[in-house]
Amino acid sequence: MLRIASVLLAMLAAPAAAQAQTPPPLTPAQGWIDDLPMYFVGGCLSFSGQPACWDGMPPTPGTSPRVGVAPGSTLTLRFGVPATAVTVPAGVGTLTQRDPHTWALTLAPSAVATFPLPVNATLAGDTHAGLAHFSATVAVTSPEVLDVERSGSVVRLRVRVPARGTVRAHVRVGDQRRSAVVERTFSAAGQRRLRVKLRGTPARSAWLVMRYTFPGGQPVEISQRLPA
């Protein structure tokens, strides 16, 4: 009788022991940047009380989302669970919390190129809690020279800028400037035609040089060979 009771107790205890030895699966936390999923790099998180850490898992090409924005834009960072703190590298921009799940990142004026964006978030959800690391790529839209026409000593061009700012254009031959500088100010993103007059007729290849400056940022320079 005692032997039968021992066997029954062992059979009842076996499933409970197996369940205790098999913790629930721990899945990475989720984060989005402007509704694109950010790449989960790693971190130390708990899932339903079960802690686990991931070492750095650098994104492979194509896994980190690439977000195209205009200079000075505001990006939305959103997390699947509440985030009590979010950090990005110094100089990238200013972070503001909108609600427990959402933070706004306003880019600094100096952010005028394509750059990687690591995001660290302290999560405090019922399922995920702890520090999570994410990755994305931010591509700040550059100005464009849409078309260029040259007639004798006059160069006509059409330019487009991604946001407010100032455009300065001139013609260069070698290291020498061979035209006056034409400057136009844009109050918002848009297109505009410019007219640049050459000094004389260059005997060598001439280059159109355009600089776009977003207020408070560094100039972005574009140069291209002029048609003969």
Written overview of the protein:
Residues 1-20 form the signal peptide. Keywords: Signal. Strands 3, 4, 5, 7, 10 and 11 form a six-stranded mixed β-sheet that branches. The protein is mainly beta. The longest helix is centred in the N-terminal third of the chain and has 20 residues, at 2-21. Residues 1-25 have low confidence and may be disordered. It is elongated. The chain is built from one helix and 19 strands. It starts with a helix and ends with a strand. The protein has one helix at 2-21; strands spanning 31-33, 36-37, 39-47, 50-54, 66-69, 74-79, 83-87, 93-99, 102-107, 114-124, 128-140, 144-151, 154-161, 165-173, 176-177, 182-186, 190-197, 207-213, 220-225. The relative contact order is 0.15.
